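Students often ask why inverse folding is considered easier than folding. One informal answer: many sequences map to the same fold, so there is more than one right answer. In these notes we will look at a single instance of the problem. The structure comes first.
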């Protein structure tokens, strides 16, 4: 019992999320609510049950908790967690034999850098990233010894999916650092940092994704004012003009020429007409940026009857244009590419780790994903894609009844502002961010107002939503609006009565399980029964009389039958001369109390 109560009390956040999923689609249709039932006298047999709405209140009152029971994992008798979960244990507990609670793998994670040491001996940027990898936290702070030392005089060279992360502010070419994994997906939070490459990134995660260490928080400071070609900047600096201003005497600011640049492929066109792998590469050459993307000053056509490209160039054709006579545009072959894994299939039938690597081989991309026939999914196929993929539908087709194609989830996304609304009504900066978490695009632009439901619409809301009605309108014949179920609720005491007569601490808790509001305050007065009323209570209730009043000619009040009772020895004699350990046990089977104490002969 202590183990279960400890889990229930320490996992408040897990409980709040569980509230949002307490009603399954099948149960919801029958107005049933799932609770974690803790049988009195046998607490180790706690289990999830789904009961009718009127009975849920009695369960909660007698010690049960809303939502499914936490699944205990690890230890001798622990269950094995689902593939999208991990066995979460208390911080500092790494023993394989220790017990934990099955918890969903978080995705995506925030961008803050608050290092923790995982139980696998790896340092993670924050606890969320450790948990996303299915790893518990051994200690706050970096692991003793950290990762592989790099940089400096004797530092090692990092792996393809790592970069040499320096201490904030240590940007010299001989500075030592630690090999750190390049993050795959970053939040679009705007917490700017200045990279050691002189580029301002929207947050520290995007700097790391570009393989750049952080020079300082905030945007990069501007140096002294200068004029391109004026010769006023100090040694080791160049006059950096504003992006797009490539005039011979353009105004700018003196900027330090970076000594080491990341191997990221974020092409820019320099003011000298050359394409550079990223802004840092242009700055290291003392060149300003004319535009984002590769240079295309002449847009020289190639392929078909248009001719061939020059040395160090290739004919870049639109994706999917693999015919020998297809036309394209001459572009520079990239020298370095980011070591991200976003497979593409080339027109030569070879799978490349990303589009840049295909460009480096001078090969046009046929389609995203590895070569081979893409697997159909959803619709009538019954196919579920692997965890690293999602079922990509045509834009606007959100239902699982639409056939799609298993497609790799992108591991990196450019911070481009091209808003989309994903299926489910969730907004993202662009389609890549939506696809990265396995969501298809409902429409381009911002999300439109919620869909009307119930009433005459015939519309049923999707899994993560419920049909929100005006307060007091409880029937399915009332039109409402599809609204997201809240995933977390504040424990504020502002009682409401939900449709079905179930009381909740506040509106949020009712909405989290898909229930609308019947009225504010506690649920209405109980119904009178027996006596002259002619009223019979429902199967989950009984007509409670004053103690000692046993006949049906006595008026009472319909009262929920308790579903659990404490094993307290406080004997009573129920109407009919049946003895019970206490009044709760008698009421649980629908009996009123004749007298306290044992029954007399």
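Output (designed amino acids):
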């Amino acid at each position: 019992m202590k183990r279960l109560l400890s889990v229930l009390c320490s996992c408040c956040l897990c409980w709040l999320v569980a509230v949002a999923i307490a009603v399954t689609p099948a149960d919801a249709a029958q107005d049933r609510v799932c609770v974690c039932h803790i049988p009195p006298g046998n607490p180790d047999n706690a289990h999830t049950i789904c009961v009718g709405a009127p009975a849920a209140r009695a369960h909660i009152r007698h010690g049960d908790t809303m939502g499914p029971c936490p699944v205990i994992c690890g230890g001798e008798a622990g269950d094995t967690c689902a593939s999208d979960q991990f066995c979460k244990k208390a911080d500092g507990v790494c023993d394989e034999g220790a017990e934990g609670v099955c918890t969903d793998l978080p995705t995506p994670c925030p961008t803050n850098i608050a290092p923790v040491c995982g139980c696998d001996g790896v340092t993670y940027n924050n606890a969320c990233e450790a948990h996303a990898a299915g790893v518990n936290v051994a200690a706050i702070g970096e692991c003793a010894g950290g990762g592989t030392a790099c940089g400096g005089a004797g530092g090692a060279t990092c792996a393809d999916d790592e970069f040499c992360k320096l201490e904030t502010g240590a940007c010299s070419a001989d500075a030592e650092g630690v090999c750190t994994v390049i993050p795959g997906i970053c939040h679009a939070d705007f917490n700017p940092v200045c990279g050691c490459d002189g580029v301002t990134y929207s947050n520290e995660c995007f700097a790391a994704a570009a393989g750049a260490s952080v020079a300082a928080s905030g945007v990069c400071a501007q140096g002294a004012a200068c004029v391109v070609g004026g010769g006023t900047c100090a040694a080791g600096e160049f006059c950096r003009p504003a992006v797009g201003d490539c005039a011979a005497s353009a105004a700018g600011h003196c900027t330090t020429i970076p000594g080491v640049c990341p191997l990221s492929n974020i092409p820019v066109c320099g003011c000298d007409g050359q394409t550079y792998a990223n802004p840092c590469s242009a700055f290291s050459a003392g060149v300003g940026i004319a535009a984002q993307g590769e240079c295309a000053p002449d847009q020289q056509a190639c392929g078909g009857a248009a001719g061939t490209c020059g040395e160090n160039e290739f004919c870049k054709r639109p994706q999917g244009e693999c015919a020998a006579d297809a036309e394209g545009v001459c572009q520079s072959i990239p020298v370095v590419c980011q070591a991200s894994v976003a497979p593409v299939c080339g027109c030569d039938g070879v799978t490349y780790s990303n589009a840049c690597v295909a460009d480096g081989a001078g090969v046009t991309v046929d389609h995203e994903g590895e070569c081979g026939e893409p697997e159909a999914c959803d619709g009538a196929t019954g196919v579920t894609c692997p965890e690293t993929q999602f079922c990509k539908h045509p834009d606007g087709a959100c239902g699982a009844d639409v056939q799609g194609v298993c497609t790799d989830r992108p591991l990196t996304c450019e911070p481009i502002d091209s808003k989309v609304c994903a299926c489910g009504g969730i907004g993202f900066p662009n389609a890549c961010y939506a696809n990265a978490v396995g969501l298809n695009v409902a429409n381009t632009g911002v999300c439109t107002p919620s869909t009307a439901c119930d009433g005459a619409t015939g519309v049923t809301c999707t899994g993560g939503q419920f049909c929100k009605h005006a307060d007091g309108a409880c029937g399915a014949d009332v039109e409402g609006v599809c609204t997201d179920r809240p995933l977390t609720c504040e424990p504020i005491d502002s009682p409401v009565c939900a449709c079905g007569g179930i009381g909740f601490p506040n509106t949020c808790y009712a909405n989290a399980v898909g229930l609308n509001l019947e009225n504010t305050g506690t649920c209405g007065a109980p119904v009178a029964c027996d006596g002259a009323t002619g009223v019979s209570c429902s199967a989950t209730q009984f007509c409670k009389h004053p103690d000692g009043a046993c006949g049906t000619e006595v008026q009472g009040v319909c009262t929920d039958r308790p579903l659990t009772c404490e094993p307290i020895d406080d004997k009573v004699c129920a109407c009919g001369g049946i003895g019970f350990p206490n009044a709760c046990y008698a009421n649980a089977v629908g009996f009123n109390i004749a007298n306290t104490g044992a029954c007399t002969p």
